[in-house]
Design brief:
Two copies of one chain form a homodimer. Chain A is of the alpha/beta class and 332 residues long. Chain A folds into two domains: 131 residues, 2-Layer Sandwich (ornithine cyclodeaminase, domain 1); 176 residues, NAD(P)-binding Rossmann-like Domain (Rossmann fold, 3-Layer(aba) Sandwich). Helices cover 36% and strands 22% of the residues of chain A. Chain A contains eleven helices and 15 strands. In chain A, strands 9-8-7-10-11-14-12-13 form an eight-stranded parallel β-sheet, with helices on both faces. A seven-stranded mixed β-sheet of chain A has the order 2-3-4-5-6-1-15. In chain A, strand 3 and strand 4 form a beta hairpin. The longest helix of chain A has 18 residues. The first copy, chain A, is globular, with a radius of gyration of 19 Å. The mean pLDDT of chain A is 96.
């Protein structure tokens, strides 16, 4: 068998920073999902209640991409008590032509972080007002930091507000972002404050209870809800989808199962069957779904296997170019 | 992050030969599936028609087993034209308590071969007549060889007949088995010949068309149908399940989707809802489902994630004991 290549988290962090190239990679993946004969099976999901853990496995085949990735994402939420990160995982890259293993990306979840943040940038690019300057971030973890950074890649963000359930964590997040991005970033005490002052709001929490309702929406605002990716999660009250001027999702079928759309449909607030626009369709048409500067837009992101295949192929190519990685032969 | 351990195909072949210990490992897995709070999500399956390939991903959590495996099985059926094996793959072993990656088993599909053959041994152990001496194998590939070997672990097999679509391949298979097992093994020209002379028949092909019908069954015979593991495969005519005295499956829900049960239900030959016995139930009761020496029994094996988790944990423990494997750290 030919050598496979092992890449470490460091190799991959060096190869794929969160930058415009990563955003373009994810944008191309969404376009393919909406326009090409992408094959994306439903997520394999296993919950191990005994350990407060779950593992999600995603994959997709994108015509024209020579490889496909199988991404395994374990999330074990008692890990921090043991001094371990909650979210880990790896990706395995296979040749799309032969099924042979080409690479193992031991990224500990890093590439998932990047492709999720890049999706937030893509959503803002195609839905937020071009003159959006004020960002609001709900949540104070890794994605809170990365989503704000991602927004700065596509809009001239001048200041940001951060809300977190734990005020100390929100302050730490704000301080980190201010230093990293050179912006004015402030931790605030209430979600209402974030909603009242932000042109773009990104929700990044694993909440199982709605955090935002329709009364808090402001004309011209764009919301990206990226926290919900499971049957029990939701960050938006059911009336939010029913109220916004334009709802866009990353993948209709998947959002019906795991996104904000699931909760809104379950509450009877919206129909499951409307022809909901997918973000890839906007990209293919090269047209925003924002009708006016006062329209309220919403993007529901659940995270798709096509993003994983795209970022894995991109990371592998970049890391190989850089000469990193360890060759390994399974025959030896 | 702690080191992970990489094991090659050779490490794993040395650690886990097809022997009674492997059979007991798979038997325990089936018992757990029928009696414990096993979590086994549906198979993630992706077909890439463009390359005549597919990939199946299986997993399961078994209470009491400290780890779970995610097994990726690509099958790319044009590979032999390129001088490559059709079936490949690997397993990733995660801690069940933390979700951290513990090991990557680069087995190129070897452990799947072993656990599938071991399942054949378990089926024969609990269903075939104790005095079964004559084996019949339909198919002439890797599983044909391994299934025959597996039968010799649980029954005093004296002679075997092999049928393959390609007579030369069947002759090669028969010669290999005769040499490996010290039995009289003969390649024959027709399936009817196999059916007419065998106490135990194992079907191991990827056929999409039935190979055996009910008129060919003989009193006292046991059939293990292990080839069908996908929506389009079937080796038995629909009347076979309807005719046998005892039908047993590895997993009811999975056999309804991917096993012989699927085709028989689709043809209207049997009901999907009967209380079909799973092999693990027999093991838990320590009782064969064979009523008499003339009863005809059938076991429908689709291959389950619980077998993968069990064999992966077993292989990892054995390979570590042997001091094999390469430590690797994803932080470096």
């Amino acid at each position: 068998m030919p050598d496979i290549r092992l890449f470490t988290e460091k190799d991959l962090r060096r190869a794929v920073p969160l930058d415009l190239a990563a955003v373009e990679c994810v944008e191309a993946a969404f376009r393919a999902l909406a326009t090409a004969a992408v094959i994306m099976p439903p997520i394999l999901s296993m919950r191990i209640a005994e350990y407060n853990g779950e593992v999600d496995v995603k994959t997709a085949y994108v015509p024209g991409v020579d490889s496909f990735a199988v991404k395994m994402s374990p999330g074990f939420f008692d890990n921090p008590k043991r001094g371990l990160p909650s979210v880990n995982g790896l990706m395995v890259v296979f040749s799309a032509a032969t099924g042979l293993v080409e690479a193992v990306l031991l990224d500990n979840g890093y590439l998932t972080d990047v492709r999720s943040a890049a999706a937030g940038a893509v959503a803002a690019k195609w839905l937020a007002r071009p003159d959006a300057k004020r960002a609001g971030i709900i949540g104070s973890g890794t994605q809170a930091r990365l989503q704000l950074k991602a927004l700065t890649l596509v809009r001239d963000i001048e200041r940001a507000l951060v809300w977190g359930r734990d005020p100390a964590s929100a302050r730490a997040c704000a301080a980190d972002c201010a230093e990293d991005l050179g912006l004015e970033v402030t931790a605030v005490d209430s979600i209402a404050e974030v909603m009242g002052a932000s042109d773009i709001v990104v929700t990044t929490t694993p909440s199982a209870q709605p955090l935002i309702d329709a009364s808090q929406l402001r004309p011209g605002q764009h919301i990206t809800a990226m926290g919900s990716d499971a049957e029990y999660k939701t960050e938006l009250a059911p009336d939010v989808i029913a109220t916004v001027d334009q709802y866009v999702c990353d993948h209709h079928a998947q959002c019906l199962k795991q996104g904000e759309l699931r909760a809104a449909v379950a509450a009877g607030a919206v129909s499951p069957d409307l022809d909901y626009v997918e973000i890839g369709t906007l990209i293919a048409r090269q047209r925003s779904a924002r009708g006016s500067s006062t329209a309220i837009t919403l993007c529901d992101l659940t995270g798709t296997g096509v993003q994983d295949t795209a970022i894995a192929a991109f990371a592998t190519a970049r890391a190989l170019e850089a000469g990193s990685g360890t060759p390994f032969n399974s025959d030896r």
